[in-house]
Write a structure and sequence with these properties.
The protein is an alpha/beta fold and 127 residues long. It is built from four helices and five strands, in the order E-H-E-H-E-H-E-H-E. Helix 1 packs across helix 2. The radius of gyration is 14 Å and the shape is globular.
Length: 127
């Protein structure tokens, strides 16, 4: 179903809690986020747990899922919009620093996530 041009677009915050450990669920989060972005929706994708690795070069490129757009392509579209955030604690547990992230990604904590999802008219999804 296409986006209704007469209806105002609400910002979308997506939290991806799965990485290559659950690639299908992970791909769903990236697909929905990239589709919303392409439809003109303001998108914020949060990578938590094993998904944190997908903001590091070479990680998404290694993911293959039949009948799904390449994860790296979806990621790159979101990075281009500076819509990717890696959870602070998740990054720290994995030894990921800002220097490890691809351009367009950042590291931020739960206070930032809570602030985003509590903004007026925001739709939040968790995968």
């Amino acid at each position: 179903m296409p986006v209704d041009a007469d209806r105002p677009l609400r910002p979308l915050v997506v939290k991806c809690t799965a990485g290559v450990d659950e690639v299908e669920r992970c791909a769903q989060a990236f697909t929905v986020s990239a589709t919303a972005l392409a439809s003109g929706v303001e998108v914020s994708l949060w990578l938590t747990g094993e998904a944190a690795w997908l903001a590091v070069a070479g990680r998404a490129e290694a993911v293959e899922l039949p009948h799904s757009a390449p994860l790296a392509d979806l990621r790159d579209a979101l990075l281009g919009a500076e819509a990717v955030t890696v959870c602070t604690q998740c990054a720290a547990r994995r030894g990921i620093t800002e220097a490890d992230l691809l351009p367009g990604a950042r590291i931020a904590g739960s206070a930032s996530f809570v602030d985003e999802v509590l903004q007026p008219d925001v739709q939040a999804l968790v995968y």
